[in-house]
Amino acid sequence: MEKRASEKDIDEDALRVGEPGHAAAGLTGVLVSLQRSREQMGVGRTVRTLPLINQRAGFDCPGCAWPDPRAEDGDRRKPAEFCENGAKAVAEEATTRRIGPDFFARYSIDELAERTDYWLGRQGRLTRPMILRRGDGHYRPIGWDAAFDVIAENLASLGSPDEAAFYTSGRTSNEAAFAYQLMVRCFGTNNLPDCSNMCHESSGVALKDTIGIGTGSVSLADLEHADLVLVLGQNPGTNHPRMLGSLERVKRRGGRIVAVNPLPEAGLYRFRNPQKLSGIVGRGTVLADEFAQIRIGGDLALLRALTGLLVRADDAVPGTVLDRAFVASHTHGFAEFFDQARHIDWTATERATGLDRRQIERIARMLIDSERTVVCWAMGLTQQKQGVATIQEVVNLMLLRGMIGKPGAGLCPVRGHSNVQGDRTMGIYEKMPESFLGALEREFGVTVPRGHGMDTVEVLHGMHDGRIRALIAMGGNFAAATPDTEATERALRGCALTVHVSTKLNRSHLVPGETALILPTLGRTERDVQESGEQFVTVEDSMSVVHASRGRLRPAGEHLLSEVAIVSRLARRLLGADHPVRWEAFESDYDVVRDHIARVVPGCEDYNRRVREPDGFVMPHPPRDSRTFPTETGRANFTVNVPEPIEVPEGRLLLQTLRSHDQYNTTIYGLSDRYRGIEDARRVVLVNDADIAALGFADGDLVDLVSEWHDPRGGVEERRARRFRIVSYPTAVGCAAAYYPEANPLVPLGAVAERSNTPVSKAVVVRLEAPADAD
């Protein structure tokens, strides 16, 4: 089948490799933003759309959850309050390309399955509900009423509501998330897995245990006024580019930054601020004062050494380093922690981290000298086997010096997708507390289940053994985002029903159950007009600020429904016309949904009025607001965390999966990872020169990646991802990196973080093998 020029797929032999970058953003970032926007939206639509991103009268960026400047903090929003990847995210959603029934008539599902994720995403916006019935080779159009009938009939035929799972991505609005979880619980299950299960679940578990609330404790103003910022396991230049502006303000105010990462990322070196002339024509601002190139999995050992050095320093001169008053008044478990913290095994620490003792001591001195410290982290910490313990040790470090509930100091887990934190606040969680479930029952006069539901990994296991027969996904790309790709796809195909509420075509649509539906929905950028008039939705950013988002563009098609409308209509069909929830009112006027949110969700009182304030409102956070800690002990808890070294056999490497600069989560915007000097290919593995030579390969060789996992029963499981090009890259010795979702097949479904059940995508033991069919 001949490809049109606009359907160009990836030619992996076109790989071009240059020098890694040493600065992020600048004029190139501006030009790429404009070029990609023009390609997808055209000139006129670009001019109308980009100025609306993250503005008070506009829409929240559908990319990351980095917060916007707030007037009460003295910050003013810029005319261009977005980054390069935000522009790409908006261009993808606001594209003028369309997918209708003729597209699905032209391409069979088998033909589409042969295409790459990059090609699928470039085809355009979905415009009609589509269905794939058992035995069909093509998706076919279906009306909305008929689609809801199919879904409701399939769900009603299950042996139990617990045989269905209802997934949510972080793009869903607060209103849609609240309505969705209510529908699911009224149906009779708490099976509400979400994308948090695969990314920041370790943060939530660790923070709830230690400070009593699973969210970060800082504001944007706190971060920007810190004396010292530690950036751990995070690449802000690609994943949260607007964070670079905040780090630049830290440096302008005299603060210092420590970056800890296995790869030397451009955004950790220097930022060329495209909002300033000096960022366009000058050299920009050097960010990291100290770059600690840690080995994968060594973060807990590093943090243990740092806490130990602080304890020893105070032990030598009592009261000069630790905040003894804070520790005595606000913490629990200090004595046990103190006894073990004083002992540092430097041989084990240097072996685990790959860092020199002198560098670790320099970082400890920076911590001691800092009066206001913020620690930021992302999935480099959370997606490790000891992810929960590692974040608990971050908390230990901050508790020692009273760095929680103090201006300019605190904990900053940097969330990914734009409303992933808001979804959890609204009840998208398989283990919501009794207080929330009881409030739902009192508010709506319904009965909801109490038993814990399944998270994402548990759902996949449930699909394999027949306990889960249906998957409804509100956004996201379940098949590509989850680990162990072959097992995941087998699990999905074993379902009786799969339903995906989507804006764009993605891999999950091509891994169908016996019956599969695609339900097209409005994007964040589009006008949402219902019976009561034009609507807006709300979201919560990574620093707990809840604010409004107003779509301004004409919808991509006349047959699209909003997420709130899809949930409301499905709920009416599924639960019956006499159900006590006023689902018609939900769809007609989102103020009705928000009034219910105000009476059910703690911290959301007077919701409708507060979200109409220009900058919205900040959710309560007792540790930040009053140094009160809603834990079982009533105090912040010190914990004892023992690093477990990762055993890497000789001839193997420790692999982490990561994003290209030209993607966001599973959405591939393009083929330019320019900060790493990699162009026009994605099946690459980044390996240190020393490891390439030791393994007997050469830069540019074609290899298969084979993961080796020791399962709990004592066996060794292998998984293979074929035909990757080796790229010489200055990553830490003994470590390697590859893009996801291409490397997801290597992550076993059973390899999960302790307690959080998050897939361990940042520490996969692999070997490189020459493929049997190599050229």
Task: Describe the protein in words.
The protein has 775 residues and is of the alpha/beta class. The chain has 3 domains: 129-198 and 419-613, Rossmann fold, CATH 3.40.50.740; 201-413, Dimethylsulfoxide Reductase, domain 2; 653-769, Barwin-like endoglucanases (Beta Barrel), CATH 2.40.40. It is built from 32 helices and 34 strands. β31 and β32 (716-728) form a beta hairpin.
In short:
The chain is of the alpha/beta class and 775 residues long. The protein has 32 helices and 34 strands. Strand 31 (702-710) and strand 32 form a beta hairpin.
**Poorly predicted residue ranges:** 1-7
Architecture of the largest domain, according to CATH?
Answer: 3-Layer(aba) Sandwich
Radius of gyration (Å): 25 Å
- Alpha plus pi helix count: 32
Q: What name does CATH use for the topology of the largest domain?
A: Rossmann fold
Q: Could you say how many structural domains there are in total?
A: 3
In terms of DSSP E residues, the strand content is 15-25%
- State the CATH class of the largest domain: Alpha Beta
Strands of the widest sheet, in order across it, are 6-5-18-17-16-7
Tertiary shape: globular
SS content category: alpha/beta
Distance between the termini: 25 Å
Helicity range: 25-40%
Strand count:
34
Largest sheet: 6 strands, mixed
The whole-number mean of residue pLDDT values reads 96
